[in-house]
């Protein structure tokens, strides 16, 4: 069965890459969404959209597909175009967003996401984000979103704009089972671009879409669909070809929990050989690197992250195929429970903006048991994740 799956996924990968390489217009709403999807997995981007964003005009930006397209790439657009884009937002705020003829960006999944991505940029005043979040919430209360995919797109946009407001929308609005194949692909485009939190979707989109690929001929209609299917088949192929268990997060958590046993074994050596001592955080990182390399093919130490709070940093270990960052800390005289928690909460906020990262795993090695309440530390760090899964492991667990 694995051979059949790999054969199908290889064909889909070839066709998806062909469509992405053939893409010429930039940006369009579809290529903009593809750009956001591929940002979540840097190993697949392959420079498909490494092109400068050209200037646009006020006339062009009044066309909703063009307006949405520039929303996806607003941070790359020339400043003159950004200003025109903001002017168009002001015009939108003066219109009825839910017209009777339903001719509005808010009903188009690709367009509502493009506008929402644009509003989430630091170049855009927060008041515009609040306006659209409130507008979407009003649409839900009025039953404006008639299809499953339009509801899913609107909810995904709301998660980006205002996570608290999104939590008030019933999950029954996003049941995605039994949809036509094209709608499942569009839903996957949305999910892969936004990265919804666990539990925000009813059903397993990836599994559903894989079953479609195995049971029917699935056409790829544009760059966004190509990017989504490329992500899917890469994940499926990775799960089949890796020797390690499918759930990489759980595997790493187990390895971290058992880290003190590994350290203890290194201290007790035969034939009076000198023991390996763990003196500082760098020693912890070296040992953890070796452990990870035993279980995962691609472990990249010291990857640079984008800036956060006016500074950038390096992650300890990045596993691109699994989309996991692993951080290692060791408590010491001036790094107790509070200081570790503060550092890791800042890290969690930084990594949620890093393309290709979905999970942060934090190993806190506490050999002198400086953490008085390790359970609280783990819970506080894990609760800090927004659009990012966070796992924290204090070991030994202490008192």
Low-pLDDT runs of 5+ residues are 242-246, 306-312
Q: Which structural class fits the helix and strand makeup?
A: alpha/beta
Count of distinct structural domains: 2
Gap from first CA to last CA: 48 Å
Helix content: 40-55%
The CATH first-level class of the largest domain comes to Mainly Alpha
- Largest sheet report: 5 strands, mixed
CATH architecture of the largest domain: Alpha/alpha barrel
Strand order of the biggest β-sheet: 1-2-3-4-5
Give average pLDDT, whole number: 86
CATH topology of the largest domain: Glycosyltransferase
Number of strands: 5
The helix-strand sequence is: HHHHHHHHHHHHHHHHEEEHEHE
Overall morphology: globular
How would you sum up this structure, described in words?
This protein is α/β, with parallel strands linked by helices and 399 residues long. The protein folds into 2 domains: 240 residues, Glycosyltransferase, CATH 1.50.10; 148 residues, Trna Endonuclease, Chain: A, domain 1, CATH 3.40.1350. Helix content is 53%, strand content 8%. It contains 18 helices and 5 strands. The protein has a 5-stranded mixed β-sheet, with helices on both faces. Helix 2 crosses helix 11 and helix 8 packs antiparallel against helix 9. The longest helix is centred in the N-terminal third of the chain and has 21 residues. The N and C termini lie far apart (48 Å). 40% of the residues are buried. About 3% of the residues have low confidence.
């Amino acid at each position: 069965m694995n051979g059949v799956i790999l054969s199908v996924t290889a064909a889909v990968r070839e066709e998806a890459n062909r469509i992405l390489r053939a893409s010429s217009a930039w940006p369009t709403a579809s290529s903009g969404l593809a750009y956001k999807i591929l940002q979540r997995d840097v190993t697949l981007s392959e420079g498909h959209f490494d092109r400068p964003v050209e200037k646009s005009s006020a006339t062009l930006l009044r066309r909703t597909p063009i307006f949405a397209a520039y929303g996806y790439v607003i941070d790359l657009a020339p400043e003159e175009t950004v200003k025109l884009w903001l002017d168009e937002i002001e015009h939108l705020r003066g219109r009825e967003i839910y017209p009777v003829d339903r001719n509005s960006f808010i009903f188009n999944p690709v367009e509502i996401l493009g506008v929402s991505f644009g509003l989430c940029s630091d170049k855009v005043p927060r008041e515009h984000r609040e306006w659209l979040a409130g507008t979407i919430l009003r649409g839900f209360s009025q039953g404006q979103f008639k299809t499953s995919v339009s509801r899913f797109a609107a909810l995904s946009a709301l998660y980006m704009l205002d996570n608290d407001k999104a939590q008030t929308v019933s999950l029954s609005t996003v049941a995605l089972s039994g949809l036509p194949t094209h709608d499942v692909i569009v839903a996957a485009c949305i999910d892969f671009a936004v990265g919804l939190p666990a539990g925000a979707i009813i059903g397993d989109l990836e599994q559903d879409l894989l079953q479609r690929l195995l049971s029917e001929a699935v056409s790829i209609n544009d760059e966004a669909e190509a990017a989504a299917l490329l992500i899917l088949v890469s994940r499926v192929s990775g799960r089949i070809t890796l020797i390690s268990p499918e759930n990489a997060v759980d595997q790493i958590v187990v390895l971290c929990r058992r880290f003190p046993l590994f350290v203890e074994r290194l201290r007790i050596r035969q034939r009076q050989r000198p023991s390996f001592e763990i003196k500082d955080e760098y020693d912890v990182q070296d040992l953890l690197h070796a452990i990870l390399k035993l279980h995962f093919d691609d472990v990249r130490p010291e990857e640079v992250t984008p800036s956060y709070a006016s500074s950038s940093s390096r992650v300890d270990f990045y596993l691109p195929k699994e989309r996991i960052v692993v951080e290692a800390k060791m408590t010491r005289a001036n790094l107790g429970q509070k200081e570790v928690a503060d550092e890791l909460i800042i890290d969690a906020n930084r990594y949620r903006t890093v393309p290709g990262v979905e999970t942060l795993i934090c190993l806190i090695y506490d050999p002198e048991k400086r953490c008085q309440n390790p359970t609280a530390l783990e819970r506080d760090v894990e609760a800090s994740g927004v659009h990012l899964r966070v796992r924290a492991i204090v070991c030994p667990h202490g008192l």
